Structure formats: structure tokens, C-alpha cells
Amino acid sequence: MTNDFYCDEVLSGNTPVTIVKETDNILAYHHTNPFYPTHIVAIPKKHISSLITLEEEDHELLLELLLVIKEVASVVTEERGSCKVITNLGKYQDSKHLHWHIVSGEPLK
Fold first, then answer.
1. Exactly one of 47, 59, 97, 99 is catalytic; which is it?
2. What is the pTM of this model?
């Protein structure tokens, strides 16, 4: 296993997810093991290991990803009153695939 849950499980279809928003290049879905009452993950369908490994050729993809995150965060904020948008790097990043968490509420764990 490559320590990439998103490619190995989600994008391959091995782990079913509840989709919030999907484009040709981006997938946003409810976290399979949420840490917050509202916990949505947004990922590019192309493998990019993290925010700091983005290449110049990925700039349009990053813009599309941020537009999806903006849309999802707007809905969550409207429904819940607030949200956080988080990405992790280094040892904080369990899965080595660029992903953002859109979360709201107090941590469950």
C-alpha cells in the first residue's frame, strides 16, 4: 500500500463514499471516519502528494479544487453557522494525497 487512502480506496471505488460535489477533476465527500459532526473531504482526482509538492502545471487544478472547497464551505457555513478549512502537511498528513477537510462543530474524538 502506498499510504494513499484517496487513490487506493476512494478513487478506486474500494471504499464507498457519500458524494457532496464532484467534477471531472475534483471529489468532495463526507469523511468515512469523521472527527467532527460535519466533516467533508475535498481531493483532486489526480494524485498530488501534498500542497507543497504542487507543480506549476497543477495551478488550474488547484484553482478548481479551491472553487469546490469554497462552494462546500459556503453551504456548511450557511447550514451550521461556521466551518474550518484545513489541510495537513508532513507528519500531520496521514494520507500522502493532497486533501482538504471542511469541518464544523466540536471534535468528536
1. 99
2. 0.93
